[in-house]
Amino acid sequence: MKKKSIWKLYGFAWVTLGFFLISLLGHWVFGWFAYVNEQTQFGHPVEFGNYLVEMMRDTLENWQSEFLQLLWQVGGLALLLYLGSPQSKEGDDRMEAKIDAILAAVDPKNAEKLIDEIDQEYSGRHTDTRWAAKRELSNKK
């Protein structure tokens, strides 16, 4: 099997990084022009140190309100989906309930035992409340 290059494997990340660097560079370059214009308009000296402080403040302010928020929304949700949080399993609930109903219709005598064995084997949470309630009742007996 042919090994894919890192450029193809992470193509979206490279393009996103390129857009990020171009926008960051543009922000700082045009910020410099605006800073020089403002300083000369008010007769103040143009000092790189003051520009650096002002641009760092503006950049971090923008990142806090935009990048970090979006990063957490996208990255955090992707992480939770990967880890299998209960919120990420909502689409599976309906399918699991249907499969449980099919198993119960095909083999009503052994359905509960089979469903329990499957749940134990895959150690997942059982989302069909009808079977979960039956299991709790049978465990109490």
Account of the protein in words:
It is a single chain. The chain folds into 2 domains: 6-83; 87-140, no CATH class. The model has no long low-confidence stretch (mean pLDDT 82). By secondary structure, it is mostly helical. Helix 4 packs antiparallel against helix 5 (111-122). The protein is elongated, with a radius of gyration of 29 Å. It is built from 6 helices and no strands.
Whole-number tally of structural domains: 2
Count of strand segments: 0
Give the structural class.
Answer: mainly alpha
User: Rounded to an integer, what's the Rg over CA atoms?
Assistant: 29 Å
The proportion of residues forming helix, as a percent range, comes to over 70%
| Residue-averaged pLDDT | 82
- Strand-residue fraction? under 5%
**H/E series:** HHHHHH
